Amino acid sequence: MTATQHALDITAAAARAAAGKLARDIVAFDVSDRLVITDVFLVCSAANDRQVRAVVDAVQEQLLDLGAKAVRREGEREGRWVLLDFSDVVVHVQHQDERAFYALERIWRDCPALPLPDVDAGDPGGSGGGSDGGPDGGGGR
User: pTM for the complete prediction?
Assistant: First the structure.
């Protein structure tokens, strides 16, 4: 089983919205073979609580314009790790510290990464970003 085209469209729109608010290390995983409750996890990070909230707002607004409304939201009050459940797609917006600590990429590394061609924010290297780089990826490796 693979993610539906609808899920892929929602994922791309959410990624563009997150990138528009300067979210970093945006990655998507097709989890449809592992989970029956959703097709895609989109994960991105932000530098601070305020930016987490801005990314969340932008994603919700963009997807609402496409007719997709979150059926569940968790973590909004704290602003450290917000989960937006759109049924076919679950968006994780994490503060960069939570992203490094929980390392969702390691948990879901067996799932195929999905291309996000319209997103130029984040780590072009793929699933390893966010947990070891400095701000803006300008450091020395």
Answer: 0.82
